[in-house]
TrEMBL record:
Protein name: MerR family transcriptional regulator
Gene3D superfamilies in the record: 1.10.1660.10, Antibiotic binding domain of TipA-like multidrug resistance regulators (1.10.490.50)
Domain HTH merR-type: 1-71
One Pfam family of this chain: MerR_1
Organism (species): Thermoflavimicrobium daqui
Highest classification ranks of the organism: Bacteria, Bacillati, Bacillota, Bacilli, Bacillales
Database matches in PROSITE patterns: HTH_MERR_2 (PS50937)
Family annotation (SUPFAM superfamilies): Antibiotic binding domain of TipA-like multidrug resistance regulators (SSF89082), Putative DNA-binding domain (SSF46955)
InterPro entries for this protein: DNA-bd_dom_put_sf (IPR009061), MerR-type_HTH_dom (IPR000551), MerR_fam (IPR047057), TipA-like_antibiotic-bd (IPR036244), TipAS_dom (IPR012925)
Amino acid sequence: MSMRVKEVADLVGISVRTLHHYDEIGLLTPDETTESGYRLYSNDNLEMLQQILFFKELGFPLKKIKQIINSPSFDRYEALRLQRKMLLEKRSRIDKMIQMIDKTIQYMKGEIQMTNKEKFEGFDFSHNPYEQEARERWGDKVVDQGNAKVFNMSKEEQASFSERWNTICTKLAELRHESPDSKEAQAAIKEWYHLLNELGNYSLEAFKGLGQLYVDDERFTKSIDQHGKGLAKFMRDAMVVYADQNKR
């Protein structure tokens, strides 16, 4: 059932202006707009809004959120799993800071002694831990170069790219029971190589290494094998053949 912008704002507890802003920057565009100009949000829109708000809670700026969720390789389930992990870590850091405050109050009352080191326990000024894991999950090329390019695409270009992405995955899935060095398999994996290089700058060696990651990282395997069981391994083998044949 579709919901109007005011209904969504009331449900979530954010302002209508915020939702309008998300639409204007292309972060969350409602699936429908009535002839009268009313925005209508679908269940898919609400799920993506939930994802956006989780990212915000983890300290991501809107521009970075847009880059990640628009990535062709973005996996919502995997993102939720990682977000849960990072929120638990964030809760742990907050608990430590609360303990430090309590100790500092006791110290000010003269009830306990406190070293200078103890006065700063709980502070963490390192980089965003979720972003690092996102890089490990989707790769630097996707998070940085790739998403930057997707971010600059128009909605039509993004839709076209996503369609090409899925078309090649489907083609490879249909070939996964064939030999990875077959003419058909190599033609399809060549398309994959060139498609990836529209997002980043993959050398043949990097392409080969990425294929190995498809098998070594169960998260990649699960995402790729959604198109067909065994696809990740087939793509790995085909990418090795392609890289070795073309670097000669």
